[in-house]
Amino acid sequence: MRTFDLSPLYRNTVGFDRLFSLLDSAGNVEGGAPTYPPYNIERTGENAYRVTVAVAGFTPEELSIEVKENTLSLRGEKAAQAGGEASQVLYRGIAARAFERRFQLADHVEVKGASLENGLLHVDLVRNIPEAKKPRLIPITTGVAQPQTIEAKADTAEVEAPRAA
């Protein structure tokens, strides 16, 4: 098993403690980690992502998608077989067991939509960064105070001309 020491990164960054703790927890994958169902994560644009999960045999009614506190949860549970004749399965190669798969979402990532086609569940995500969080250019001024002009709108009747002494 590989181990990575992220402590040198802590001293070179500010405010990324949560990110590094998530990386630490992701790196500590035990042998009993769930591998079902298989999934892909792809980047479809600059701020767009897609999570694709293989859910062969599941209907949209048997699947649920929930987002809560930056965690995307995908659940699937097969409905009980309701039929007149009970069939006997000789070999089960298509897994139809219940599952729950969780994904940690970064801040400002929202679920845009979901679709099910050809046994694949596609969940589209988009990152919407608020204007206050976007980078902005800060002007640099010199130490010399710049004179400021103040324009005041006043009635001409109230304004007196300066008197010469």
Explained architecture:
With 165 residues, the chain is mainly beta. The protein has a domain at 35-80 and 89-131: Immunoglobulin-like, CATH 2.60.40.790. The chain is built from two helices and seven strands. It has helices spanning 7-10, 17-27, and strands at 39-43, 48-54, 63-68, 71-76, 99-104, 109-117, 120-127. The strands form two sheets. Strands 1-2-7-6 form a four-stranded antiparallel sheet, with no helix packed on it. A three-stranded antiparallel sheet has the order 3-4-5, with no helix packed on it. It starts with 6 loop residues before the first helix and ends in a 38-residue tail after the last strand. It comes from Azorhizobium caulinodans (strain ATCC 43989 / DSM 5975 / JCM 20966 / LMG 6465 / NBRC 14845 / NCIMB 13405 / ORS 571). Residues 30-143 form the SHSP domain. It holds the Pfam family HSP20. This is Heat shock protein.
